[in-house]
Design a protein that fits this description.
heterotrimer; A alpha/beta (about 250); B mainly alpha (about 350); C mainly alpha (about 400); A: about 250 residues; alpha/beta; 4-stranded antiparallel beta sheet; 9 helices; about 25% strand; C: about 400 residues; mainly alpha; two-stranded antiparallel sheet; 18 helices
Chain lengths: ~250, ~350, ~400
């Protein structure tokens, strides 16, 4: 069953047709990768899914409900969490506080005026945040300034923050961009572990073929704003059209 | 019709001042990325350059004039400006009469020097600091500058007349075929408008046709790239700041006859000029100029008796009202670009 | 205790002691001594210290936590003042209704201004708030004269209706009171050369300030306060974490507007008059200054900043030439004249020059304000203490990496 249905989505910026006619369906509890060369429209597509952009045509359905016209926070409350290319965390806050904010968002919704309550009295929130930090092996750094952490730790924290909301769909935007090999492998292992332990759908936009083929169960290849082909990793590897449009170049380069 | 024309004309001189200050603010913001709350103070210092220069021209020494007697029959002591000694009385008088326009020559180097000192001594250290810090430190500087001026020149406005040749008014009505004396406009305000137009034209030409200007424009569009090209940005920043200071100073010098310089005129203009910049669109030079004139003229329309009868008090708030409406309907101002000053 | 942790409770106690003992603390010099002009223990100034403290505490909830720099908060203070004076004219000279209504009206006005201004951020937000404040100021001066008294401002008169109090006799001066306790009332305590003044109005204001301060600690330590800091840190992440930043910032804006209204109402309760000039943009700039000078985003900073600026303003601006001459009289004539010439521009009417310089110095060298300054000094001392007994452990520390 598809949890995310993208139908006939098109988006134009002035003279540039960023997305042509995108049809895409992400099955529940799968890991779905979207790949494509630079300028293929991957980021535009992602932004249409999370409410940052509104497509000109088509529809985006999440779990049977349209996400179009909803604000990013509303879409998140529906159950879609997003991990950014460069980790977006609350740099001025402590790691523990970073972890508590999504816990509050999960429990209290988009806004609650809890101005005279004390954080230390929120036992369930504190407990949940500590639990998540432990799971992500960040508990030692709980009082650290989030901005002072290493990039790999920031990435872990960001993923942990997303998971704290128990999302149904986790969207990852090039999660290993700019990472060293070791960090990349750690991230792959982390994502594999997350997939094993939870009922979660993961959609990943990625450049790095190593990451894509290690994780994905299905792959959509995007080129010039339209999906070229969608198939299993094995079939994608051998697909002549894909080799021509995309893989050929990268493998030559590598 | 004639009333409308008159209001447009009336709005032009204030609009010119807004446009010139806003132009400098935008230059500084666009190139250096600094929000300069001390820019109004530079305008004010410009006006006081006119005051200072007029005073310097009339430096005099005492001479005993045997031809004139006081009521006791003693020879009268008369102050004779040094200029009389050097150029004779007629030329000397003419020079003193033309003190305000002449002080432009004096103002330009003074303002550029002040600009350089400000940029090297203070602003430079704030490029990387948050905008709030920039606002606050320049706000502090503005207070200091205006208090220093107050200390030396006193709190009262100092009348600084325009040359006698421009003392009268020009009868536009007669020229355009309306009844005479319906649209009269002081010559000096006409001069001010023309002067502002020349300065604005010169700044735009400088940015358009010189290599230096090209780099500056490129820097306004994309600071990082220009930095990566290995162009010595620092030196250009300093020069840009000097130019912006000079523009503000010139706006002030020529404004002295319209509004007698006082120490707080900078702050009065600054608040409005900031509104102008934001309405025009942060970082857009044409936007700053357009919005300057637009708001100047609108303000003058709002002061018409007919309008005030309908909406009392509108002249006091029109600029702010327009600013609010424009900011809400056009988030980036009239001609602003995306992504400027939004973080 | 009271829902505060140990450290916050300690801070609260210190502030409470300082506020309640202010008549002693601010009057350290005997009457008639050369230093007596540095005494700040007279009611008018003490009231201002705590009232502007409230204003700055509220402003800090907006600026310190969310980072939204409002340049128009004086408008809310002004609106609060006008509301209070009208309550005194129409209802009663008791200050309680006046203060409550001033908070409500300022809250409603800030809801309107905030709802519009918060559609934009960064400098656009600052300019929008500035525009609203300047409009309020201009209107209060001109068209709204029937409500605001225009240039002359407003005072309660004996002819006012005052439904609850009944009419005053002709020529009687209306005085603000708290259930009959005159706000101007006080008693003086003479101890040796010292005279301490205890004033009813000051103690009312101080108690209100303590409540305001307590509430601000609670807000800082609440989940709501954490969300506000998250707004300042990364609004994008907040939105993608399912939280709507708009109502959070708007709530902070309204709360700070209500604090401003409270300060405005108290100003009227202490000194029953209002003029439009307290809405001018320089007044808005002043509260920014107080918050920054003390330390934006810290609990105690705004109180310190407000106290410091109001104290300096009153004291420094009172120093004139003859006072300077008195001070430097012991020096040889030439040096005395030189010193007076050097110092004179910065005191008396030159107070603003000192303020501007001080402000620049703080922003340049101490962006965290007085609180950061205090912390730095504290750290220096602690290090010195620690150095004495930690030489050995330091040495052990140094050996460690080699062993690994």
């Amino acid at each position: 069953m598809a949890i995310l249905e993208v139908k006939n989505v098109g988006k134009r910026f002035g003279g540039l047709q960023a997305l042509g006619d995108v049809n895409l369906s992400v099955a529940e509890n799968s890991v779905h990768a979207i790949i494509g060369p630079n300028g293929a429209g991957k980021s535009t597509l992602l932004n249409c899914l999370v409410g940052k952009l509104i497509p000109d045509t088509g529809s985006v359905m999440f779990d049977g409900q349209s996400v179009l016209g909803r604000k990013p926070y509303e879409i998140n409350q529906m159950g879609i969490s997003r991990v950014f290319q460069t980790p977006e965390i609350f740099g001025d806050l402590s790691v523990m506080e970073n972890m508590m904010i999504p816990c509050f968002a999960k429990r209290d919704g988009a806004f609650r005026m809890h101005a005279l309550e004390s954080i230390s009295n929120e036992r369930d929130i504190v407990g949940k945040a500590e639990h998540m930090l432990e799971e992500m092996k960040l508990i030692d750094k709980r009082n650290m300034h989030a901005a002072a952490m290493s990039r790999g730790d920031k990435r872990r924290l960001e993923i942990a923050m997303c998971l704290a909301q128990d999302p149904r769909l986790l969207l990852l935007d090039e999660p290993t961009a700019g990472m060293a090999r070791a960090d990349t492998n750690n991230t792959i292992d982390l994502l594999k572990q997350i997939k094993e332990e939870r009922d979660i759908t993961i959609a990943i936009i990625e450049h790095d073929m190593h990451v894509v083929f290690s994780l994905a169960e299905r792959i959509t290849v995007l080129a010039q704003g339209t999906p070229l082909v969608e198939d299993t990793p094995d079939n994608i590897k051998g697909h002549p059209k894909v080799r021509e449009a995309y893989l050929g170049e990268t493998q030559d380069a590598a | 019709m004639d009333a409308i024309l008159l209001q447009i004309l009336n709005g032009l001189d204030k609009g010119s001042a807004y446009a010139l200050i806003a132009l400098g603010l935008t230059l500084i913001f666009g190139t250096l990325g600094v929000v300069n709350f001390a820019h109004g103070a530079l305008f004010m210092i410009g006006a006081f350059c006119a005051v200072t220069f007029s005073k310097m021209l009339s430096f005099s020494h005492v001479v005993i004039d045997e031809t004139q007697k006081d009521f006791l029959g003693n020879p009268l002591k008369v102050d004779v400006p040094y200029l009389y000694d050097w150029f004779g009385q007629a030329t000397g008088d003419a020079i003193i009469d033309w003190a305000v326009p002449l002080s432009i020559i004096f103002t330009i180097p003074v303002m550029i020097a002040i600009g350089f000192i400000m940029e090297r001594g203070l602003i430079k250290h704030f490029y990387k600091r948050p905008h709030a810090d920039q606002i606050l430190v320049t706000f502090g500087l503005a207070i200091v500058l205006q208090e220093v001026i107050k200390y030396f020149y006193g709190a009262n406005p100092i009348p600084t007349p325009a040359p006698a040749a421009f003392a009268g008014s020009f009868d536009f009505g007669a020229l355009l075929g309306f009844d005479p004396n319906t649209i009269i406009y002081p010559y000096w305000r006409l001069v001010y408008f023309a002067f502002a137009a020349v300065i604005i034209g010169a700044v735009f030409a400088f940015l358009q046709f010189t290599t230096f200007g090209m780099v500056v424009r490129a820097g306004m569009a994309d600071r990082e790239t220009v930095g990566l090209l290995g162009i010595n940005i620092d030196k250009r920043f300093t020069i840009m700041f000097g130019i912006a200071a000079a523009v503000a100073g010139l706006a002030g010098v020529m404004y002295a006859p319209i509004n007698s310089p006082n120490y707080h005129m900078g702050m009065d203009f600054l608040v409005l000029s900031f509104v102008v910049v934001v309405v025009g669109g942060m970082g857009s030079l044409p936007g700053a100029v357009l919005a300057g004139f637009l708001l100047g003229v609108l303000e003058s329309f709002a002061s018409m008796a007919v309008v005030l009868e309908f909406i009392p008090g509108i002249n006091q708030i029109i600029i702010y009202l327009v600013a609010i409406i424009i900011l809400l309907t056009r988030p980036r101002g009239l001609m602003g670009r995306a992504g400027v000053m939004e973080d | 205790m009271f829902g505060l942790n140990k450290k916050d409770f300690g801070l609260m106690v210190i502030v409470a002691i300082l506020a309640l003992a202010a008549p002693f603390i601010l009057n350290p010099f005997p009457e008639g001594s050369a230093m007596a002009q540095f005494n700040a223990g007279y009611p008018d100034l003490m009231q201002r210290l705590v009232i502007f403290g409230i204003f700055a505490i509220g402003f800090n909830i907006l600026f310190g936590l969310t980072g939204y720099l409002s340049f128009g908060h004086a408008a809310f203070l002004g609106v609060g003042s006008y509301a209070a004076i009208w309550m005194m004219k129409l209802l009663t000279l008791n200050v309680i209704p006046a203060i409550i209504v001033s908070v409500i009206i300022a809250g409603l006005f800030s809801l309107l201004v905030g709802w519009i201004s918060l559609r934009r951020s960064g400098i656009y937000f600052s300019i929008l708030t500035l525009a609203f404040a300047q409009m309020s100021y201009a209107l209060a001066y001109s068209v709204l004269t029937p409500i605001t008294g225009g240039e002359t401002g407003l005072q309660p008169k004996y002819t006012d209706p005052r439904i609850l109090d009944g009419a005053l006799e002709e020529g009687q001066t209306p005085r603000a009171n708290l259930f009959g306790l005159d706000m101007n009332q006080g008693f003086e305590l003479s101890l040796g050369g010292w005279v301490f003044t205890f004033n009813a109005g000051y103690y009312l204001a101080a108690v209100v300030m303590l409540i305001a301060f307590y509430l601000s600690i609670r807000i800082f330590r609440s989940p709501f306060g954490m969300m506000l800091r998250a707004v300042k840190s990364n609004q994008q992440r907040l939105n993608y974490t399912g939280l709507n930043s708009k109502p959070y910032t708007l709530a902070a804006f309204v709360i700070s507007g209500m604090y401003a209204g409270l300060a405005g109402g108290l100003l009227v309760a202490m000194d029953t008059q209002v003029g439009a000039e307290r809405m001018f943009w320089t007044a808005s700039g002043e509260v920014v200054l107080m918050t920054i000078l003390g330390g934006a985003g810290t609990l105690i900073g705004p109180v310190l900043g407000a106290g410091f600026i109001k104290y300096m303003e009153n004291i420094v601006s009172k120093i004139n030439k003859s006072v300077l001459e008195q001070w430097f009289a012991f020096m040889p004539d030439g040096i005395e004249d030189l010193l007076i010439t050097l110092v004179y521009p910065f005191v008396g009417k030159g107070w603003h020059l000192t303020l501007g310089l001080l402000f620049m110095l703080v922003v340049i060298f101490l962006p965290g304000g007085l609180v950061e300054g205090g912390q730095r000094i504290g750290r220096v001392f602690r290090r010195r203490d620690a150095n004495a007994d930690s030489v050995e452990s330091d040495a052990a520390e140094q050996r460690k990496p080699a062993a690994e």
